[in-house]
Amino acid sequence: MTLQDDALALPLPPAPSIYHPTPRLAELRANRPVAEVTFPDGSTGWLVTRYADVRQVLIDPRFSRAAAAGSAASDTGIALVATDSILGMDPPEHTRLRRLVAGAFTARRVEELRPKVTALVDTLLTDVAARPRPVDLVEHFSLPLPVRVICELLGVPPEDQHVFHAWSDTIMSDAGGDPAEIRAAMGNLAVYFGKLIADKRATPADDLMTALIAARGNQDRLTEQELVNLCFGLLIAGHETTANQINMFLLTLLHFPEEYARLAGSPELVPQAVEELMRFVQLGEGAGLPRVTTEAVDLSGVTIPAGAVVLTSMAAANRDESVFADADRLDLSREITQHLGFGAGAHHCLGAQLARMELQEALRGLLRHLPDLRIAVPDAELRFKTGMIVRSLQSLPVTW
Amino acid sequence: MWNVAVSPACIGSGVCAGSAPGHFAIGADGRSHPPATPVDPDDAILGAAASCPMEAITVTDADTGTHVDPFI
Ligand code: HEM
Ligand code: HEM
Ligand code: SF4
Question: Which Pfam families match (chain A) (predicted)?
Answer without folding.
Answer: p450
